[in-house]
């Protein structure tokens, strides 16, 4: 950590990294300690905060060497213009810069400074030099700054930095050259200009699949219904609302697609007649006639060639039997069964409990795990099916 007002965000970043399962040690510059006290980071990390190049309290007589050899990744957040310039110049005159100089781990910088500082040609040149040497950066973003102004230079939010950490540590090229289309989120069908039909999907499962596929080297298009989620970095997002819009986006992309993962919760029904004006409330109640929306995955299953098709089935009873019927009817290669009666599965949670079912009928029950972990298990099966294709 370096000395910027954005240091308060580093508290949340540390919490997120710990939640992800990371072991974290904190190094603070003298300026950083002016903004946030070391005790906060010691409590969250479970380790003493390192601040001095030479300290009697240090566990090692040469702390910058011990720290340099310890991490899989060095994250500097916030990374001020001063620290960026010192690292770009090869200086090692405080603990943080010495750790960076002595470490062979990748370095991720989260720049944070006023707009004019960030746009200064010297800062631009320093960042360009570091990127050319293999340093990675995340942000900065645009927004309100410490000066009261607004512009670029705001440190990326902790969630975005945590995603960049995960990306740096886990990226592979196993799906390089493969094109994935992933659908996610809910769809909406109008009843009148005010009301619509929908479901409870938040899109978390589909977004996790898209993010993990991109992280493993795929070129990913995410066809997303309405959701509050942020787009995964490096993923092309096509926003849709209705079943017809989702169908059009997927059908257009399908010919150039290697893998289609249909994680969206697509509505089965729509209003047969959509009112052109708001339906008024009456004491007589309302009868709404529904019509099927059609299943475009069935259409794609009939015309697919070498493509891999992955579907999802949400069931509340006879899950495996119903999922197998869907797999066969839609000519899928793999179907992911969600049993909504199981705790930790389904909508609006960060975990999932699924069963993976193949075309040969083999079923694999997975324990409760994060949706990102489920996504990787699905992609492991996809990888097997892509062999030889």
Key structural traits:
20% strand, single chain, Rossmann fold, alpha/beta, 8-stranded mixed sheet, elongated, 389 residues, 19 strands, 34% helix
Explain this structure.
- The chain has 389 residues and is of the alpha/beta class.
- The protein is built from 13 helices and 19 strands.
- The radius of gyration is 25 Å and the shape is elongated.
- The chain has an eight-stranded mixed β-sheet with strand order 10-9-6-11-14-15-17-18, sandwiched between helices. Strands 1-2-3 form a three-stranded parallel β-sheet, sandwiched between helices.
- A hairpin with a 5-residue loop joins β7 and β8.
- Helix content is 34%, strand content 20%.
- The protein has two domains: 163 residues, Rossmann fold; 214 residues, CoaB-like (Rossmann fold, 3-Layer(aba) Sandwich).
Largest sheet: 8 strands, mixed
> Which range best describes the helical content: under 10%, 10-25%, 25-40%, 40-55%, 55-70% or over 70%?
25-40%
**Category by helix and strand content:** alpha/beta
CATH topology of the largest domain: Rossmann fold
CA gyration radius, whole angstroms: 25 Å
Beta strands, count: 19
* Superfamily (CATH H level) name of the largest domain: CoaB-like
- Percent strand equals 15-25%
Overall tally of domains: 2
Q: What integer is the average pLDDT?
A: 91
List segments where confidence is low: pLDDT < 50 over at least 5 consecutive residues.
none
Q: Ends: how far apart?
A: 47 Å
Count helical runs: 13
